[in-house]
Amino acid sequence: MHHDTAQRGVTPERDLTPERDDRPGRDVTAQRDASVGRDAGGHPMSRTDHGGGPAHVPVWVIRFNEAFERVYLVLRVNAAWLVLTLLGLVVLGVAPASCAAADAYISGREGDRVPVWRTMWASYRSQIVRANTRMLPLLVVQGGALMMLWIVMGGGAARQAMTVVLACLAVISLFWATVSASALAAVPRVRRQDLLVSWRISLLIPGALPLRSVGLGLLLLVWVLLCWALWPVGLLLGAGTAVDIAVSLLGRRGERLLDELDRASAAAGG
């Protein structure tokens, strides 16, 4: 009797181990992960991998790394652009160096690491004549437009109406020549055409892509003013960033425009 009372007075210990479901088809891993909190994407919030690190990298870390890699690429491209421009004595080096910088950016579109110097040097050597013959006339127009603006701003025009007319002509010429030269650099297919065909296509692009052309002109204007105010930034990133802007706005869209022109010509010829 005392023995039965002792048994009733003792509370047996409870087994806190979760029951294991050994039914066929039951995923044991799913049972183990059921007790782990998960975020909206279904990823474990507190689980670590076998190496002791987080199960997934935060988005801001990925974005920061991408931005750092981009800035580092622009720094290298800009340094190579300066060297190649000086190698061509500036006048004959600006055009092929800009085309070489655009080719470096195009090579890195898919996120691959680009051998900047090797890529730009090969591009520079292969198209130093082609780039100069196609872009130098546009660079001359740019220089003439800037000179006209300088004269107008200095009060060189006799009448106010003439001042307005000359200023408008200078701005339009500068804008058109800048976008056309940017198209030649950013779209390799344009500069690979025959001379007259390259000029015709490059001069048509500002009218065919008006929104992108205006955006390019405004962004380049802001960037030039920023580099003028902060000359160390212009020295380290100036030309590299300008070419990067041109490739971003005109590169892929210019290629699609050429494809559309080819299909239209084939349809008209057929």
Structural overview:
The protein has about 270 residues and is an all-alpha fold. The chain has one domain (about 60-250). It is about 75% helix and about 0% strand. The chain has eleven helices and no strands. It has helices at about 1-10, 30-35, 60-85, 95-105, 115-125, 130-155, 160-185, 190, 195-210, 210-230, 230-270. α4 (about 95-105) crosses α6 (about 130-155), α6 runs antiparallel to α7 (about 160-185) and α7 crosses α11. It starts with a helix and ends with a helix. This is DUF624 domain-containing protein.
Q: What is the overall silhouette?
A: globular
Using DSSP, what is the number of strands? 0
Taking the alpha carbons of the first and last residues, their distance comes to: 110 Å
How much beta, percentage-wise? under 5%
What integer is the average pLDDT? 84
The portion of residues assigned to helices is over 70%
Structural class label: mainly alpha
Q: What order do the helices and strands follow?
A: HHHHHHHHHHH
Instruction: Characterize the largest beta sheet: strand count, sense, and whether it forms a barrel.
Output: none
Total domains: 1
Enumerate how many helices there are, as a single number. 11
InterPro entries: DUF624 (IPR006938)
Protein name: DUF624 domain-containing protein
Keywords: Membrane, Transmembrane, Transmembrane helix
